[in-house]
Amino acid sequence: MAFKSTILIVPGLGNSGPQHWQSIWQQQYNFTRVEQQDWETPVRADWVETLNNAVSQHNPQDVILVGHSLACTTIAYWAQKFNIKIKGALLVAPSDTEADTYPSGTTGFSPVPLIKLPFKSIVVTSTDDYYVNFERAMLFADAWGSELVNIGEAGHINVSSGFGHWQEGIELLKRLDQ
Asked: What is the pLDDT of residues 127-151, one digit of tens each?
């Protein structure tokens, strides 16, 4: 299956290992990964600039961002700063950088921007994500103007939650690719 759009994989804190659905999708569909300089102690300004550089290498109207965890917040900050209309964004398991459960070591990712994104987006969340409670995920989706997809008890929608290829996610991505 080929995608019409340019798909940019945007991993979160720690990057996405080889068994993570983002890495599997990247390899299987030849998507492009946005490579951050510092995966462990990220600085918002750096991540936002790196994302902007990656998007600017393509026709923005053809770009779909696929963010996981901290990347969702990065994408919101990027949209707030640059206001570029891309084709869309699949925002999976947005983490709450303001929560007590959020890991230390990041700089500048709080508060989470509660702005309407200038592009179509889908937020995918679960009811038992350690890094965001369901109410906050709903708040983010509502503020961002995103469609909210609740996939039930699915943890942080990553390898430790049992997500490898994740076909349901591909189906959501296809909806943005139309």
From this structure: 999 999 999 999 999 999 999 999 9
Residue 1: which pLDDT band, with cuts at 50, 70 and 90?
Answer: low
**Which DSSP category does 171 fall into?**
H
Going from N- to C-terminal start, the domains of the chain cover 6-176
What is the model's pTM? 0.97
pLDDT digits (tens, 9 = 90+) for 60-87: 999 999 999 999 999 999 999 999 999 9
Q: Is 47 left (phi over 0), alpha (psi -120 to 50) or beta?
A: alpha
Q: What is the DSSP string of 90-157?
A: EEES---TTSTTSPS--BS--SPP----SS-EEEEE-SS-TTS-HHHHHHHHHHHTPEEEE-SS-TTS
Taking the C-alpha atoms of residue 10 and residue 3, their distance in angstroms, rounded to an integer, is 17
Strand ordering across the sheet containing 88-92: 32-33, 6-10, 63-68, 88-92, 121-125, 147-150
Contact at 8 Å (CB) between 47 and 75?
no
Domain 6-176 -> CATH class: alpha beta
| CA distance linking residue 32 with residue 1, whole number of Å | 16
Residues in the chain, total:
178
